[in-house]
Amino acid sequence: MIMMQQQSPSISVVSGASNASASTSDDFGFTRALSELSITKEVRGCWFYAEIYSIISSRGWAYLACSELKCFKKLNEDYVCEKCGIHRPNGIWRYTLKLKVRHGKHFVDVMFWDDAARQLLGKVAGDFTEHLDTDNRRTKSCPEAINELVGQEYLFKINRADSVPGSAGRIYVISMVSQNKEKIYEIKNATTEESIGEAYNSDEDLELLFETGPTTVDSNVITSDNEKDALDTPDSVLQRRKFGGGTSTPNDDGSTQGSSNKKLKSVKIEKP
């Protein structure tokens, strides 16, 4: 049996991440409705609202990584990190969690790498020992804590958009989450592009996103913009069907089928 090195589970669902904080309106100047994401070229730093629709776990939800804290590379079958060139018998389980989220009839896929997933779940991947097959370096069943995410509503901040091989679709890598009820309610009920933008950028409500304040993070936690390179193929062959910026519906296999884009008429909606 391989002994696993653990990290301190110091992050919960909060308004900030270990490598970023938002304290001014400029931090939220770039916002989009979910329906706009696939037709927007630049989405880095963008916030959007969505409900978690399903867990995409066909290729697992975690992987056994190099125990060097600055390295996110997946260990090979001999427990060797091909990036460091070192045998690492004491690997670290790191998240590679994919979800499908929606707002109304619009769906997109999102990716949570290790740091962001720990925000979402409040635990490190290695804590779910009953769901990990250490001898074969793979995950087993999906933990209930992950399954229970379905139906929950969040504000998500995008770190980057990765292309899906063989498709024009994109998967959005998430860096931060917020579950502020007041802000979620406001944005959820803004049903046009114009009113959604107004809800995101309301000066009087900006503080609500970060009412919990900064989070204390273990000094060993490393966040990397290059986490997409952690795996040999970071579920890189994400078999997705193309989805556009218009209305899309999920198929039974988790894929989506989009219709043509139609720009909504901007109508200001008065708050009740």
From TrEMBL:
Protein's name according to its UniProt entry: Replication factor A C-terminal domain-containing protein
Gene3D superfamilies: Nucleic acid-binding proteins (2.40.50.140)
Biased composition regions of type Polar residues, renumbered to the chain: 248-261
The Replication factor A C-terminal domain, residue ranges: 55-159
Annotated region described as Disordered, given as residue ranges: 216-272
Pfam families: Rep_fac-A_C
